[in-house]
Amino acid sequence: MTLAQELSVGEVARRSGLAVSTLHFYESKGLIASRRTAATSAATCAACCGGSR
């Protein structure tokens, strides 16, 4: 996997063992970055989850 790939928030939660709500909380605090796609309105997270806003 390259760093340019994106994962769904659910996939990040599954891989990390964190709850989706935890990831959304981290996003709200600016600790991780995500974007929502127009097609699905689903949050996606950079593979490293350390991107800046």
Automatic annotation (TrEMBL):
InterPro entries: DNA-bd_dom_put_sf, MerR-type_HTH_dom. Gene3D superfamilies: 1.10.1660.10. Residues 6-39 form the HTH merR-type domain. PROSITE patterns: HTH_MERR_1, HTH_MERR_2. It comes from the Bacteria. This is HTH merR-type domain-containing protein. It comes from Bradyrhizobium elkanii.
